[in-house]
Amino acid sequence: MVSSIVYGPVPSRRLGRSLGINNIPPKICSYSCVYCQLGKTLRMEVEPRPFYKTARIAEQARAKLKQAREKVDYVTFVPDGEPTLDADLGEEIGVLKGQGVRVAVITNGSLLWREDIRQNLLKADWLSLKVDAVSEDTWRKVDRPHKLLKLEAILQGMLKFARMFKSELTTETMLVRDVNDDLGEIKRIAEFLAVLKPVKVYIAIPTRPPAEHVEPATEQTINAAYQVFKEKLDDVEYLIGYEGNAFARTGRVQDDLLSITSVHPMREDAVAEFLSNARTDWGTVQELIDNGSLMDLEYQGKKFYMRKLPGTFF
Ligand code: SF4
Fold first, then answer.
1. 295 CA distance to ligand 1 centroid (A)?
2. CB 224 within 8 A of CB 186
3. Residues with Cβ < 8 Å from 61, sequence gap 6 or more?
4. Which residue's alpha carbon is at the smallest distance from atom 3 of ligand 1?
5. Least confident of 7-11, 13-17, 241-245, 303-307
6. Which residue, 38, 168, 194, 215, could crosslink 232 as a Cys pair with Cβ 3.0–4.6 Å?
7. Alpha-carbon 87 to chain mean position
8. Of the given ranges (20-34, 90-104, 249-263, 269-283), which has the lowest mean pLDDT?
9. Half-sphere exposure of 167 (CA within 13 A, CB side)
């Protein structure tokens, strides 16, 4: 049987209804991230090469788009490896866009020091870059890069790319406990992102079981990271495993509070205002704290409320 390169559409908080393109066989990557859900990188590579014929990808996408009952918002390159290792990526994006769809790419950004990769990615309508660390030792610990990669060149490549890219640039920073969640590193990442200027910055944690034993950063750290990022960046959101109901406003106070706090923490005064608008009181919040779905946290003398992280998977 010929395996399918195109899958979905699947719902995605960031992209709406997204048709996935798996343009890399499992699992070929330039990184072997400590939190990767795909298991160990089978082949560490840094030299782009062709994998599947562009016509085959285009044909499968066309068929899926035709079958889809609802509108597809994005066709997204999110493969079992690093999508930019596909030498034909630029051509594939061009052909898919010719089918009238918007194209997104979720990349680790490790090859952006190369001009050809920057050119390929410039064609995308939406891009997510991985920025887990900006210090050499932390980067090595969390992303475990191919031995030929150089962090400084990657960061410079990202900056160069960001200056040229006219579409939607976002970033994702995965915080892993005791690996890259030290406040000093989080501040350095924020400084880098402030220069990169993505339209949106996501703070993520591993939410599905990674192959190796790692733990997500704590709520305390995630809240601190949010506050540090917010000092330098306009649009910061969490990706902490509540994909389904985030942003869904139901009119039910407790559900809506949980929905908002799964995207970002709320300061005490914002919660007070929310409760007053909903004509209810702090008993509503206390109930959520008592049943373990919400928690309060201190940061620089202020109180914040955050949705508790989904149950640990260990
Ligand atoms: S870059 Fe992505 S696919 Fe590659 S190891 Fe990291 S998480 Fe896994």
1. 31
2. yes
3. 6, 19, 21, 75, 96, 99, 101
4. 81
5. 241-245
6. 194
7. 23
8. 249-263
9. 12
